[in-house]
Amino acid sequence: MKAACSPDDLLAVARRICAARDWRLLQYQDLNIGLAEFGRRMAATIQQWREVERRQSNADELIEQTVVHEYCKLLYEAVGRRDTNAGARAMIEVWNYVTPLIRKTLRDDDLAQDVGMDTLLKVCEKRDTVRDPGSFLAWCAVIAYREAIRTAEAHKLEITMTDLGFTDDADIEELDTRVSVHSQERPTADLDQAVWLAELEARIRACLHRMRHGAEVFIDLVLHELPTLDIAQRLELKPGAVYVIFHRARKRLQRCRQLLTDLADALGATP
Fold first, then answer.
1. CA dihedral 124, 126, 128, 130 (to 10 degrees)
2. Over the stretch 187-227, which tens digit does the pLDDT of each residue have?
3. Which residue from 95, 210, 215, 257 lies 20 to 30 Å from 247 (Cα-Cα)?
């Protein structure tokens, strides 16, 4: 994709990305937004990101991130209007996004269908707790993964961190001797969940102690569910750099096998 400069170029990119992902909300009049308004919103977001991050507004990566960011806002708005055509379409698009993630995790089509429906219900119930509508789909994915983990535990299915989006890396460092490989006890009625998560954070920091900002980014995104822009501003990084650090941290965590198991447990137990 070549760099886009003019408003027409921005809209062309938006059309192309939306068509490729079967995103159709811009076609629904009851959402009260058309391509022209969407283009203006994109331009405003790009300008804001450029001023804060000093990034070029015509960078391909930035433009694609902007399309996704602004479309997530549309999805968030439409899900709140379930009695409209746009609301119904938004639920279909959320379903289309989360069910492949669930199916990949559970490897069972029937269970994936059930968990998909549970995920949609949770999305509607918890919609008002979304901190960043521009990351709405990522927020939906977190709910989907947690529902999948609970279902896997109930059916005694084996789940690996690869199923949850963690990938193997041939260049992963050897297990750091500073990180304990002994199993930690699960939270009980006598051990507050906050204490458990604090201990988990400490172990993540120990595992990633050689990686600059790795622990902070991973903890803030996965455990605290903070918006990417907030993390970027606090650490004085570009949002793109936050994503890069996050993916590198995921790979490095493969050296801490027991930590990954406990992390999966914590995500499954977190409301």
1. -110
2. 333 334 555 566 677 778 878 877 888 888 888 887 777 77
3. 95
**At a CB cut-off of 8 Å and minimum separation 6, what does 54 contact?**
none
User: How many angstroms separate the Cα of 46 from the Cα of each of 10, 37, 66?
Assistant: 10, 14, 7
> How far, in whole angstroms, is CA 5 from its chain's centroid?
28
Give me the helix-helix angle, 60-79 and 239-252, nearest 10°: 90
Tell me: do 184 and 94 sit in the same domain.
Answer: no
Residue 19 has what pLDDT? 92
pLDDT tens for each residue of 56-67: 545 677 888 889
Distance CA 203, CA 253 (A): 10
- Between CA 211 and CA 238, with CA 248 as vertex, the angle to 5 degrees is 85
Pair (31, 81) in one structural domain: yes
Residue 1 lies in a domain: no
What domain range is 219 assigned to? 161-271
pTM of the model: 0.60
